[in-house]
TrEMBL record:
Pfam families: Vut_1. One of its GO terms (molecular function) is transmembrane transporter activity. It comes from Pedobacter petrophilus. InterPro entries: YhhQ (IPR003744). Involved in the import of queuosine (Q) precursors, required for Q precursor salvage. This is Probable queuosine precursor transporter. It is a multi-pass membrane protein. The chain crosses the membrane at residues 49-72, 84-106, 138-159, 171-196, 216-237. Belongs to the vitamin uptake transporter (VUT/ECF) (TC 2.A.88) family. Q precursor transporter subfamily. The keyword Transmembrane helix applies.
Length: 256
């Protein structure tokens, strides 16, 4: 395939952004950050389902997830269900491959001169730091991959169900609506597998539900805020493709 046509080049670019951001999300996701402190506001003290002192502590992976869901909706809009499914399965395989490579790299014998280094005035064991950052637990990896696949497939199906009702109108409804529901699924699946089924943690269902609801609240707000960006991206792509080709692609995508 030579990618000579506008639509083939568009699919290549969108697909690359989709895959790259999904893999990035997995690796930066090991860092947890406080949303309130990042924004410079006082931490919320939330009591939910008997779980006290909850606040908006999120995985850094949320930085790239809005991009992934925008890519999902755009690819869905122009190329249809089959292409999103293909990319979702491919991405899951690549994420698993990436973790396998990282696992192998963790078992390499570190060079003596590299192990102990001074970073920002602090002596660090670089080998331990490397393993701590990249060595996510197997339950978390499995939960993350399953949540990604389930969330993506749900997003695709809901997107097209809404589109059958609204037609070409109300892009915001099918895009944001499908994202909100798929994010709800994603938020709970990964926590359930990684922390409820995992015998190392075995969180109570109240803890899983409370953390999931807090995380989903953040994702809900971000999804709403990202809606105007979706329209901007859509307009740029329509300008690149031309009105006739853009309409042709969306019509073909709607047929599955």
């Amino acid at each position: 395939m030579t990618f000579k046509t506008k639509e083939s080049r568009l699919f290549l670019v969108l697909g690359c952004f989709f895959v790259a951001n999904a893999i990035l999300s997995e690796f930066i996701g090991v860092k947890l950050f406080s949303v309130e402190e990042t924004l410079g506001i006082k931490k919320f003290d939330i009591n939910l389902l008997g779980v006290k002192n909850l606040s908006f502590v999120m995985s850094a992976g949320v930085l790239t997830w809005p991009i992934i869901f925008i890519m999902t909706d755009i690819i869905n809009e122009y190329f249809g269900v089959k292409q999103v499914r293909f990319l979702s399965i491919l991405t899951s395989i690549l994420i698993a491959f990436a973790f396998l490579v990282v696992w192998g790299s963790m078992h390499l014998s570190a060079a003596d001169f590299w192990v102990h280094q001074n970073i920002n005035g602090e002596d660090l064991n670089m080998n331990n730091a490397f393993s701590g950052i990249f060595g996510q637990g197997m339950w978390i990896i499995v939960g993350s991959i399953i949540a990604f696949i389930v969330g993506q497939l749900a997003d695709v199906l809901i997107f097209h169900r809404i589109k059958r009702v609204t037609g070409e109108k109300a892009l915001w409804l099918r895009a944001t609506g499908s994202t909100l529901i798929s994010q709800l699924i994603d938020s709970f699946v990964v926590i359930f597998i990684a922390f409820y089924l995992n015998p190392q943690y075995h969180y109570s269902w109240q803890m899983v539900a409370a953390i999931g609801l807090v995380n989903y609240t953040y994702k809900f707000v971000v999804a709403i805020l990202m809606t105007p960006i979706l329209y901007v991206v859509h307009a740029i792509i329509d300008g690149y493709l031309g009105k006739e080709l853009a309409h042709k692609l969306t019509q073909m995508a709607g047929r599955g």
